[in-house]
Specification:
Elements (H helix, E strand, L loop, with lengths): L1 H18 L6 E2 L6 E2 L6 E2 L8 E3 L5 E8 L2 E7 L4 E2 L3 H11 L3 E10 L2 E4 L3 E5 L7 E7 L9 E7 L5 E6 L7 E8 L2 E10 L4 E6 L2 E5 L13 E3 L5 E13 L7 E14 L4 E3 L9 E8 L5 E8 L13 E8 L4 E2 L4 E4 L7 E7 L5 E7 L12 E6 L4 E4 L9 E6 L5 E6 L8 E6 L10 E2 L7 H4 L4 E4 L6
Parallel strand pairs: 1-9, 3-10
Antiparallel strand pairs: 2-4, 4-7, 5-6, 5-8, 8-9, 8-10, 11-12, 11-35, 12-13, 14-15, 15-16, 16-17, 18-19, 19-20, 20-21, 22-23, 23-24, 24-25, 24-26, 27-28, 28-29, 29-30, 31-32, 32-33, 33-34
């Protein structure tokens, strides 16, 4: 009994010693290198704890997060992984909303305690939509085994499957899309086995065979009309090829493509000669928030695959009358990227109608494999186009989605290793500029080294 009491006393004293202040023997002028890189990022006030790890080797380390009277101290051992308790994190975010957190990292290295230069984490007032939807698939080009479409709670680390391909013969599934961030109204495509488009409206599920004699292919890239009555799609004759010696490993290109609109109530497809001309490749349609304009990408038709690297898409628009399903008679070119030897893909209008976010690359439309692909913004009131410099990197930035309040974007980037796409979130300020993005937080700081694809904001979860 005496031995047990001594052991307990020794443990208590040890814990008390660990919890006390440390004597800093060296103050560094450099900020710590941490993963994920959360130094000086801007985050929403409802995000899950930003667990991180110190890249430098150490015996033990501490992180002090504070804003005003609220303070949180986290300790770690040799793994240098800081796991932030949810309750303390929420208190900090409430205190820092519209302000920032001060973060100081201290480490015991070479028998002395050092303190890195402090950094801040800005906390915006505007919350982000609570859920993300994304496809998970290992990187590859032709073969796959497991894949699925999942939803992730941004306020914690909960992830649920919407559908996994083990339920459908291990087939391919893609192009998931939601009407106005509503998880009860969505669609996605099934490829290979059970090939179809699944249209989901609450408890109603429709299986659609969307190939017709008048269209080039089954329906491909979708965009919901805000009313939910229509969905704009591209129809594409798509091919894939591989480079023997090029930093872009794979090319995906169209030999023909058009844009159509599907009527979900009448089960009819409508289009216009302006959206389906033989002399142009039209693709990536997207409706404006008021539903009266259809934006799309258009390129001069080329001989494919011979001229694959000469195909350059401009950003265009045409009016649309949802009452009559009629299109305007004139196509407006909003950004003629081809004049500067660039190409537009993935146009998406902010829900408030002020900005249009798109991806710009050197050629083609499959920018998710183009190393030079970056995010650009157009101010729709002035038609001024500019890069989102704070969000871009030296590697691929491509697919993106707006949150419902037009203050947050999520986008896929290959900046970490050039292979996987991983979701980054960025704040968009009132001037349409991006702040430094942050990697979607995970409970396990090593998650991304083990294990992503297109990501879409949702207002709430989908229950099935």
């Amino acid at each position: 009994m005496y031995i047990i009491r001594c052991i307990c006393l020794w443990m208590i004293l040890g814990l008390m010693a660990c919890s006390g202040p440390v004597r800093i023997q060296k103050n560094l002028e450099v900020k710590p290198e941490i993963f994920p890189d959360y130094v000086d990022v801007t985050i929403p006030p409802n995000i899950a704890p930003l667990n991180f790890k110190l890249k430098d080797a150490c015996v033990e380390a501490r992180a002090i997060l504070e804003c005003g009277p609220e303070k949180l101290e986290i300790k770690t051992g040799k793994d240098a992984c800081f796991v932030i308790p949810a309750s303390g994190w929420k208190r900090l975010l409430r205190a820092a909303s519209g302000n920032h957190l001060n973060v100081t990292v201290q480490a015991f290295v070479n028998d002395e305690w050092i303190a890195y230069a402090p950094f801040i984490i800005k906390v915006a007032k505007e919350p982000v939509d609570g859920w993300l939807a994304y496809r998970l698939i290992e990187p590859g080009y032709e073969l796959w085994n497991r894949m699925g479409i999942y939803q992730r709670n941004l306020e914690n680390y909960t992830e649920n499957a919407i559908i996994e391909n083990k339920m459908s013969g291990n087939n391919c599934m893609n192009c998931h899309s939601f009407c106005m961030q509503n998880p009860e109204k969505m669609l996605f495509h099934m490829r290979e086995t059970y090939s179809c488009t699944l249209l989901i409206d609450g408890d109603k599920v429709e299986k659609l065979n969307t190939k017709t004699d008048q269209t080039l292919s089954p329906l491909v890239y979708p965009s919901w009309h805000p009313s939910g009555k229509y969905v704009a799609f591209s129809v594409n004759k798509t091919k894939q090829a591989f480079h023997m010696n090029d930093r872009n490993r794979v090319e995906v290109f169209d030999s023909a493509s058009d844009v159509v609109v599907y009527d979900t109530q009448k089960h009819e497809i409508v289009t216009s000669p302006l959206l389906s001309s033989e002399g142009a490749f039209e693709t990536f349609p997207t409706f404006s928030p008021d539903g009266n304009t259809l934006y799309f990408c258009s390129a001069k038709a080329r001989t494919m695959p011979k001229e694959y690297d000469q195909v350059r898409y401009d950003l265009c628009s045409v009016s649309f009358d949802p009452a009559t399903r009629r299109f305007g008679t004139v196509v407006d070119t909003l950004y003629k990227a081809s004049e500067i030897d660039k190409s537009v893909s993935f146009p998406r209008v902010s829900p408030d109608g002020k900005y249009l976010l798109y991806t710009l690359s050197g050629y083609g439309n499959f920018s998710i494999w183009h190393k030079d692909a970056d995010l650009y913004m157009i101010d729709l009131s002035t038609l001024q186009s500019y890069p989102l410099e704070a969000a871009n990197s030296d590697d691929v930035e491509s697919y993106h989605s707006w949150s419902s309040d037009s203050r947050w974007i999520v986008f896929s980037s290959r900046r970490m290793d050039g292979l996987y796409t991983r979701p980054f979130i960025a704040y968009i300020d009132e001037k349409g500029q991006a702040c430094k993005p942050f990697l979607l937080p995970q409970k396990d700081t090593d998650f991304y080294f083990r294990f992503m694809n297109p990501t879409i904001y949702l207002n709430s979860s989908q229950e099935r």
